[in-house]
Amino acid sequence: MEAFDVLGDPVRRRLLEHLASAGELSAGGLVALAREEFGISQPAVSQHLRVLREAGFVTVRADGPRRVYALRGEPLAEAERWLADLRGFWSQRLDSLETELARGRRARRHTRSTDPDHAAPAADEPRRMA
Amino acid sequence: MEAFDVLGDPVRRRLLEHLASAGELSAGGLVALAREEFGISQPAVSQHLRVLREAGFVTVRADGPRRVYALRGEPLAEAERWLADLRGFWSQRLDSLETELARGRRARRHTRSTDPDHAAPAADEPRRMA
DNA sequence: GCCGCATATAAGTCTTGACTTATACGCGAG
DNA sequence: CTCGCGTATAAGTCAAGACTTATATGCGGC
């Protein structure tokens, strides 16, 4: 998942956000925004744009001397899928965990410490989160 | 979106994948996997686990002398939401841009300014850069 | 209490990559 | 053709952070 290496940089994330809300933006426009928000130079932005381009996050269209950038959906969808898969596995595990707990909570008291060689087979309590 | 800074590292991504598919794993188990796949040492993995912990990606449970790690869904969901929002904006803004670029390669003729539509007027900025 | 195992932290090194300035490239105007 | 503007690339510097070795902490067994 190379995509997350690209998304790891806050400047690049912000550039993508701007492209998302604006639809398309010229390189100059993006430079202006990044300069205002991060205080970085034109070449710095251009290098970020190259990374985004090579990772397929954006497309470029030439409009006269200007380069107009637009967001591409596919890499975003791919990253989203990776996250969703993780969560899928996670909730699946949580479900079976809760099922087992609901079934055997009474019958199963603490039975650990007789088998130090094995990995933990199940959780003692379901981790509640938001 | 601090979450993406965490997900930016391939070792951490792999640790999360393992946790997702295994349900829970002891620190030692994760060390073994990371050592095998990346050839890194125990402290290296421990430091990655700290990052994951502090960002809320995992929970830790003490089982005797062992630390048992498990995935948390919330940060994943949050990152997923950020991506989905971007894609939402993007598809909402859907112009002929994407399709034109995808198949307009053979006809390498760009008719500029046939599109008076002002989708991206913010390209110009009044100030000159230093 | 003492020892050993599982894990975490400390301290230091080294690589990655984000930034800088300087320069090259391409296009439209005159 | 030449100039100027917009953008990309080159080359070099610097800092973040991922890794190392060495050491501290905490728990269970004896």
Instruction: Tell me roughly what share of residues is in helical segments of chain A.
Output: 55-70%
Q: Quick one: how many beta strands of chain A? A: 3
Q: Any idea of the CATH topology of the domain at 3-72 in chain A?
A: Arc Repressor Mutant, subunit A
Describe the main β-sheet of chain A briefly.
3 strands, antiparallel
**Please, what is the oligomeric state?**
homodimer
Name the average pLDDT of chain A: 79
SSE succession of chain A: HHEHHEEH
Of all protein chain pairs, which has the greatest interface, and how many residues does each chain bring to it?
Answer: A-B, 60 and 54 residues
CATH architecture of the domain at 3-72 in chain A: Orthogonal Bundle
Q: CA-to-CA gap between the ends of chain A? A: 27 Å
- How many helical stretches of chain A? 5
Widest sheet of chain A: strand order?
1-3-2
Give the structural class of chain A. mainly alpha
Computed Rg of chain A = 24 Å
Shape of chain A: elongated
State the CATH class of the domain at 3-72 in chain A.
Mainly Alpha
Give the CATH H-level superfamily of the domain at 3-72 in chain A. Answer: Winged helix-like DNA-binding domain superfamily/Winged helix DNA-binding domain
Residue windows where pLDDT falls under 50 for at least 5 positions of chain A: 104-130
Beta content of chain A: 5-15%
